[in-house]
Amino acid sequence: MTFKVTPWEVTGDVDYEKLIKEFGTQPLTDKILARLEKHTGELHYMIRRGIFISHRDLDWLLDEYEKGNKFFLYTGRGPSGHTHLGHLIPWILTKWLQDKFGAELYFQMTDDEKFLFSDKLTLKETNNFAYENALDLIALGFKPKLTKIIIDTECADTLYPLALSVAKRITFSVVRAVFGFQNETNVGQIFFTSMQAVPAFLPSVLAGKNIPCLIPHGIDQDPHFRITRDVLPRMGYYKPAALHNIFFPSLQQGNKMSASLPDTAIFTNDKPDEVKRKIWNALTGGRETIDQQRKLGGQPNLCSVFKYYYFLFETDDAELEKRRQACLTGKLLCGECKNELVARINKFLEKHQAGREAGRKNIGKFIFKK
Ligand code: TRP
User: Fold this and answer.
1) Does the global pTM surpass 0.70?
2) Is any atom of ligand 1 closer than 6 Å to the C-beta of 223?
């Protein structure tokens, strides 16, 4: 099986063990998780289940923390469309880390990136999506006092001089090797990693002293941060640490969810009947007939509905295992399992959508200002 993972494209059936080796990230071992748990009192289910699969320099970050050198969090979103449930994975863990460590969050909205990398989207559209997507962050309950949303094109006066000092230390041959850029690649794309690097040291610049940084993010973004980690020490800053999550499954086949194929994903602004239709059309591990299913059992390992429980909608490990067993033994049929999932998703979305609407008047409190 071949697969491909870049910041802009994920295809095929991803072999994460192989990917970790290729990228050179560190697996989250029991030892390091025990160390994290000492500070958090528990481990988030996404960490327990391996939805977060690897890291860079988490041990160093905890060394610093134990010496009293507190870290800030950094993550972001390329606003190319509405938010889908897969986007929430790193944000939910980031919220948990913010609560556990009282850490500040810098959240970058790369409206510039999505303009540069899209054939269709205008800058006005990506900028509008930045505001739309910000509502999803607010709905997740991030604290306005601790959370700063950076919209790239609107914070250019702060970001640009810092991006320049990064850009000066990245050569074309490096970005070509890392991203596979060609002669036809536009020069904005070639420059872009310099922008994504900035929030990893912006708080250090603002504070006038080095502050450790932890970036929870989808593992596809690692190439940007490999370059960032190479450049920042040369500018006198710490390398950012990172926690990497695997991709949320598509409702249709093995690939990750995609904003460009709306039926493969549930969006945070979907209506209850759309959710129902998408889940009813989803790929399952069910058998051809009810009789066969009763006899042979279902195949939760192949089932996107089961994966939805696993990633987001059954946070209790024992309950999840019960569901898996009921499926494997043919007691639980797909219809019932889908109906329960639709109800859980719609319950979540009802609250989330109300949070988004309430967030519209608070958005100003979250936007980064110098
Ligand atoms: N490039 C990311 C995307 O396309 C957006 C982003 C910017 C980001 N800064 C980040 C993602 C930091 C994770 C962490 O989605």
Assistant:
1) yes
2) no
State whether the beta carbon of 83 lies less than 6 angstroms from ligand 1: no
Quickly list DSSP for 282-315: S-----SSHHHHHHH---GGG-HHHHHIIIII--
Residue 362 located in a structural domain: no
CA 214/CA 103 separation, integer angstroms: 10
* Ligand 1 close to Cβ of residue 221 (< 6 A): yes
- In this structure, the answer to whether residues 236 and 349 fall within a common structural domain is no
d(CA 167, CA 162): 9
Mutate-to-test residue for ligand 1 from 221, 225, 247, 368, highest number of ligand atoms within 8 A of CB: 221
Position 155 scores a pLDDT of 97
* Parent domain of 207: 4-251
With the most atoms of ligand 1 within 8 angstroms of its CB, the residue from 224, 243, 260, 368 to mutate is 224
| pLDDT surpassing 70 at residue 354 | yes
Total of domains in the chain:
2
Q: Tell which residue, 246, 242, 256, has the closest CA to residue 25.
A: 242
